[in-house]
Amino acid sequence: MVVGGRLFTLCGAGQANIFEFGVTLANQIPVIDVFAGPGGLGEGFAALQSQSSRPFRIALSIEKDVYAHRTLQLRSFWRQFNPARVPDEYFAFARQEITEAELYHAWPKQAEAAEREAWHVELGSNICPSKTLRARINSALCSSKSWVLIGGPPCQAYSLVGRARRAKVKRSIIERDERHTLYRHYLDIISTHAPPVFVMENVKGMLSSTHNGRRIVKQILDDLECPNKCDHQYRLYSFVNEPRGLTPLGNPEFDAKDYVIRSEDYGIPQNRHRVIILGVRADVERRPSLIQPSSHVSLASAISDLPSLRSSVSSRGGETIAWHKAIKDNIAILSGMDVDADVMIEMNMLLQELDGSISTGGPWMSYRPGRASALAKNWYRHGLLKGVCNHEARSHMPSDLARYFFASCFARVRGRSPVLANFPTRLLPKHSNVVDGVRGAVFADRFRVQVSDRPATTVTSHIAKDGHYYIHPDPLQCRSLTVREAARLQTFPDSYIFLGPRTSQYQQVGNAVPPLLARQLAEVVYMLLQ
Predict the structure, then answer these.
(1) Is 277 left (phi over 0), alpha (psi -120 to 50) or beta?
(2) What is the sign of the dihedral through the CA atoms of 402, 405, 408 and 410?
(3) Residues of the domain holding 239
């Protein structure tokens, strides 16, 4: 039915979905997104365009974290509108002129649709038993037979860093960690609802992780081929490698490492390596194509058009004098010490150019974008936004400011980030393992500058703890990356607003799948379902 010029298609228990893209609900392929985080994987599917239409719709996204769920719901609200006709209230909210509640009150039907789409619940919890989950998915699918399941279970138990931090924990305790088996909720959905196609993402560390003496990846692949021993079986494919042959059962054969996607090889401005598995139900006749490699995209191409910021000083507030003093006083004492001459010359020159009058940023900044890359113009920016969100510099301790300044000057001169062995003695951190770090045994790159003319290093949730691994390449800004800069490296458009405390915003960004990569995966899936 049509109300007020918008199409409302009813399905399930009074469910209404609003579309303004020139397609009807019947023409769109539903997507169920579990362990959705802030929605990076889903955003890629929703952003795919085929001619003038968008072939996928996010029918349901499930996330347990309250702040990531709020981000999901806000993005779902955005998708209720044609991108060229997003209402003024959205941008007023972005500028913090109205509240989230006022935004939703201004557009209640779209807000209601977004609330239905983004479900705040923990899979396997008492409030989400299997029966409830099954009913919610069935309602969202509206009896569609052609649909896609996407998502990735939380990855801390598989990540190499996470396992290193728990090295002293008893092995039996680690192997009882429930995060090893969270993928079984994903598996249950496959066995119950039999999607024609699924996409499952996880960290590369799962390839070497073991559980009860068995490689986790082997168990997962076996389970995904025949989920819960049900009648429907799946062929598993890589998005980036052809099969090595066929198994005795006639399924495509891959080595586990064939599922790893190196994001930097596919136009993502970040060295991010993740396991992404494409599952195709055995009765689907088409075979998937591969995503096509592209040239590397540098960090500068992703963030250089954003407003320059300076950090403030955590112990002294944001006063200009304190910021200048924190850097200059700590650098001045290095003259004539164990600093290479070329780096010292660069530091002395740039110390004269420090401008404490530039902004420290904020939740919203108006600015006139300058010269920008094609990526910024065609993907990140939205013409109606006229500013940028989530672009606020952290405060840093005076000693860390000096380390950041030294490290970024070193990177400008040498074309690489320094390791602890390159730091002058006076700037070494007072950590118990710093001697091992200087020798290169552990955390030698504790302070890591992102180099402008290369893809960034992997943006992870650790960015929420401190900025030491994510130092901005410009010494005159002398700070770590903002949430928006991290989001750009993850290829979230600037119109994608992250909600919650800044620590949560960083976590959301670090845990996400890059939407621009996900859009390439979506194109492969779309061709499969034609």
Answers:
(1) beta
(2) negative
(3) 30-72+117-296+512-528
Cβ-Cβ contacts under 8 Å for 177 (sequence gap 6 or more) = 157
- 31 phi and psi, to 5 degrees? -125, 130
Number of helices followed by number of strands (H, E) in the chain: 19, 19
Q: Mark out the alpha helices in 11-107 (DSSP H runs).
A: 40-47, 66-79, 88-94, 100-106
Query: Is 37 contained in some domain?
Result: yes
- Token pair for 247: 């198994």
Query: Smallest Cα–Cα separation from 498: which of 506, 311, 519, 95?
Result: 506
Neighbours of 6 (CB within 10 A): 15
331 and 278 assigned to the same domain: no
Across 302-306, average pLDDT: 95
Task: Give the single-character DSSP code of 417.
Answer: P
> 426: how many CB neighbours lie within 10 A of its CB?
15
**Percent of the chain residues topping a pLDDT of 90:** 65
Per-residue confidence (pLDDT) for residue 175, from 0 to 100: 43
The residue with tokens 């209601």 is 112
How many domains does the chain contain in total? Answer: 2
pLDDT confidence band for 20 (50 / 70 / 90):
very low
**Which residue stretches of 384-460 are H helix?**
398-414, 434-439
Share of the chain above pLDDT 70, in %: 86
Question: Does residue 495 come out as left (phi exceeding 0), alpha (psi in the -120 to 50 range) or beta?
Answer: alpha
- 257 and 328 share one domain: no
- Residues 519, 407 within the same domain: no
Residue 14 domain flag? no
Round to whole Å and give the CA distance between 453 and 176.
44
376 and 341 in a common domain: yes
By the 8 A CB rule, do 248 and 239 touch? no
**CA distances from residue 458 to 120, 446, 483 in whole angstroms, order as listed:** 28, 14, 14
Q: What is the mean pLDDT of residues 374-402?
A: 92
Encoded amino acid at 208, one letter: S
327 in the same domain as 243: no
Q: Is residue 184 part of a domain?
A: yes
Other C-beta atoms lying within 10 Å of the C-beta of residue 367: 14
Q: For residue 213, what pLDDT is reported?
A: 75
Question: Are 319 and 203 members of one domain?
Answer: no
Give the separation between CA 340 and CA 362, rounded to whole angstroms: 37
Confidence of residue 5 (pLDDT cuts 50, 70, 90): very low
pLDDT tens per residue across span 470-516:
999 999 999 999 999 999 999 999 999 999 999 999 999 999 999 99
Point out the least confidently predicted range of 257-261, 384-388, 483-487. Answer: 384-388
